[in-house]
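step: validate -> pass
step: tokenize input -> pass
step: predict -> running
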Amino acid sequence: MATLTKKRKAVVSKVDANKAYTVADASKLVKEITTTKFDASVDLAVRLGVDPRKANQMVRGTVTLPHGTGKTMRVLAIVTPDKEAEAKAAGADYVGLDEYIEKIKGGWTDVDVIITMPSVMGKVGALGRVLGPRGLMPNPKTGTVTMDIAKAVTDSKGGKIDFKVDKAGIIHAAVGKVSFTADKLAENAQELLSTIVKLKPSSAKGTYVKSVTMSSTMSAGIAIDNKLFN
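step: predict -> pass
step: emit ->
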């Protein structure tokens, strides 16, 4: 077993494993304990008291983080020719139709968000085997299948993220980068958590938010007091 370096020990000792922190304190602490040389992503893992196998307990939604994600989102707009200028003007990185359908069929998925329109969804739906596992399939519920292409592109570029509870009942989402101020991280995290609370299914019984953990890439997890959200 590798021994912890002095620096790493000092970092680990800053987190009290028996304590549940406020969002504000966790946001300060995650910056202190991150030792990566790159600008690490800061993530939340929210464990919910739901059964995701039941359709009426599936928790999914979108949230626009007030300070963005810190990540440059690459957006593909698969649209008819009359919508191409609108998508480009809004800042889409890739715009087109059949040529991108063919590229994706060939395995190309070098984007973060795909936006399309209802009339094209038949063609895009056929790409489910490629897009589904990567979480790239457009969906009307998340605003990525729409006639308002400009708004969808602007939202995606401006810090809008999709989230969905996984099979284990956990929502994983990035709320910024370590380079963000603690206040900005806290405001982003609070916005995500408030949105998740609003989406509580009426059929969910018992404690809804079971645990909240904040961490950065390769840092220890910091427990956030779940009583603040129940």
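step: describe -> The chain has eight helices and nine strands.
step: cleanup -> pass
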